[in-house]
């Protein structure tokens, strides 16, 4: 055990390549979030249209994640990732040189979802090189690529402001993408331990289980909340508080950092105190914070509230995926793809809720109240599910007790209580 054992057990160049690919892909995925407040100077958009523009990449990522996940099983994660990067060139070049109408920009936004689907290739590419005792660390390092959002919120609007042109940002995004493609091609390798491809029947059997849909709901609120807020917050700061595009994106960066870097802490705390307990606490905090934000307080107060919300959403992501392997030991690959896609769908709807309710009511208050209500409903749903989980998971653990140490029953109670 330890860092030396970890480094010897897998393939470090592949792990780094997976992280780099994920980081750059995530940066490109949310490109339209901060840029939207600059783009609206060229295209007349109402609140609903702004929300559609920033949410379409998230929807594309959710849909294409399933496709890239299927490809990763059949042609391998490396080739899948390379294909994903090549396809990502299309929306970047289109947005840079040819997107002259809002309808074209919508297509560009949807195609940017290819970069968001990088989850499906980056994570299995890294994790398949490592034995079970190092899976968490390997997945954590590769998954830390969601910090790529920070680069977008920090630099996209600054580049657009410096050159006086938002479209050139798409051109600049090609530079790290090309570098990543070269590094990835040279250093990444598929693990020799590739699992057999899953069939349609395998997915069908997983989708028949109620808990699959429960985890989809829970993750659609935590991850969907994180990525949806990351994409929409610049619009919120710009519209509600009259900040210029760069300052609005800077405040978004502060909130994004909270969600990105507290995710592993959420997983660690869930291991220590129990995944359900953590989620019950986090959904409650998120619900109260969204309710407080609905009063649209002063800028300094709302930043504190949003920081707490994004921190809680990030920790919630880690807590959900602390529970998932306890319930789906044999189907972890499939369930990760399904639940991950559900998270993207949640991220698609969040900006739509805020934007459309702002258009109808003239205020962001109703949108944040709706998000608060959803959080509290998830808390109640979790309370109900917990009662069934205590019985079914413990029965399953008794049948497999030879796989666990003597105190495995107390571990199970900690996971589900």
TrEMBL record:
Listed GO biological process terms: nitrate assimilation
Domain Major facilitator superfamily (MFS) profile: from-to ranges: 13-390
Membrane topology, as annotated: Multi-pass membrane protein
Record InterPro entries: MFS, MFS_dom, MFS_trans_sf, NO3_transporter
Keywords on record: Membrane, Nitrate assimilation, Transmembrane, Transmembrane helix, Transport
Matches recorded under CDD domains: MFS_NRT2_like
PROSITE patterns according to UniProt: MFS
Membrane-spanning ranges: 12-32, 52-71, 83-99, 105-125, 137-156, 168-188, 213-239, 276-296, 302-320, 332-350, 362-385
Assigned GO CC terms: plasma membrane
Location of this chain's protein in the cell: Cell membrane
Any one GO molecular function term: nitrate transmembrane transporter activity
Family recorded in the similarity comment: Belongs to the major facilitator superfamily. Nitrate/nitrite porter (TC 2.A.1.8) family.
Protein name per its UniProtKB record: MFS transporter
Native source organism of the sequence: Anoxybacillus kestanbolensis
